[in-house]
Design brief:
This protein is of the alpha/beta class and 350 residues long. 20% of the residues lie in helices and 26% in strands. One of its GO terms (molecular function) is 2-alkenal reductase [NAD(P)H] activity.
């Protein structure tokens, strides 16, 4: 019965992490239960059945103890992780959502979630594309690529664009957006396997130069691919890559600082030694938070959906099956094991 408690499988965060996360830092629990019918007076709340969960790099930041949170708060040891996902409304006490609606936004890493902050949910109106896309190209990563490239970088046709982590959830879209604008695009990737794939959205792909777990340091020579310099650098990795790129930026270049995955597992993080180029070359370096641009989400959908439907933009996903696969899938993001957007499929769509 809907009012009775049902078993709710969850991915539990064990304790704060130092260095590279391990699968053992999380565990699957089947001891929790959840009522699929809202209690009386639960106005504004929802019960979601989670269908897809997103393994996003920023989750590593939340695995450490954050003393003075600015953008992110720490996960609570002993509780389920949470992040972006796609779900179906099982029960609604909110006037804007009804039973059966599909949504994407912040949810728990579990089979069912009680959502009390619905302002972090977006209703899904377009279902002629894969629902999993709302963890990626049509969700937060897509908005990140759109805002970070078009709004922060103000690109122009013919400019020289460099994208790090170019085969990830965000980077693969930035490369395609730049090519659609008529830019020359180079991307970097973290393994020979990724580089060996055919990636038509890039002029070429090079190795990134920061240290990956268990791997030797890879060389980074942006000047080889940009003899005339770089106009736009979309930075997903930070560290030595950012340092090398600053040497090769053109006058009045723009750096969109999206992420720093090379630094998330370092304590202390690496320093940047070439910042003087920001002054000499009048470079604009700007960090951004995606949710500051969520008011542009309707514009983004109007722009990107036709491109997806017409096959002018493609999106690579790496889908792991079952919540039990989530620890390995999430940890794999930090060693570069995934190709494309890492997603966990929790339950069938129907």
């Amino acid at each position: 019965m809907a009012g009775e408690g049902v078993r709710n499988k969850q991915l539990i965060f064990r304790d704060y992490v130092s260095g590279f996360p391990k699968e053992s830092d999380m565990y699957i629990s089947t001891s929790a239960t959840i009522k699929l019918k809202l209690p009386e007076g639960s106005t504004g709340s929802l019960v979601l059945k989670n269908l897809y969960l997103a393994c996003d790099p920023y989750l590593r930041i939340r695995m450490q103890r954050i003393e003075n949170p600015i953008l992110f708060t720490s996960f609570t040891p002993g509780s389920a992780l949470n992040g972006y996902g796609v779900g179906k409304v099982v029960e609604s006490g909110h006037p804007d959502f009804k039973q059966g609606d599909l949504v994407w936004g912040t949810t728990g890493f579990e089979e069912y979630s009680l959502i009390t902050e619905t302002q972090e949910l977006f209703k899904i109106h377009h279902t002629d594309v894969p629902l999993s896309y709302y963890t990626g190209i049509l969700g937060m990563p897509g908005m990140t690529a759109y805002a970070g490239f078009y709004e922060v970088c103000s690109p122009k046709k013919g400019e020289y664009v460099f994208v790090s982590a170019a085969l990830g959830a965000v980077g693969q879209l930035v490369g395609q957006f730049a090519k659609l604008m008529g830019c020359y695009v180079v991307g970097s990737a973290g393994s020979k396997e990724k580089v060996s794939h055919n990636h038509p959205q890039y002029a070429c792909i090079i190795f990134k130069c920061f240290q990956l777990q268990g791997r030797t340091r890879l060389g980074c020579s942006p000047e080889k691919y940009f003899p005339e310099g770089i106009d736009i650098y979309f930075d997903n990795v930070g560290g030595k890559m950012l340092d090398a790129v600053l040497l090769n930026m053109r006058f009045h270049g723009r750096v969109s600082v999206c992420g720093m995955i090379s630094q998330y597992n370092r304590d202390p993080p690496e320093g940047i030694t070439n910042m003087i180029n920001v002054i000499f070359k009048r470079i604009r370096v700007e960090g951004f938070a995606t949710f500051d641009y969520y008011h542009l989400y309707p514009n983004f959908l109007e722009f990107v959906l036709p491109l997806v439907r017409e096959g002018k933009i493609t999106y690579v996903e790496d889908i792991a099956q079952g919540l039990e696969s989530a620890p390995a899938a999430l940890v794999g993001v930090y060693s570069g094991r995934n190709v494309g957007k890492q997603v966990v499929a929790v339950a069938p769509e129907s």
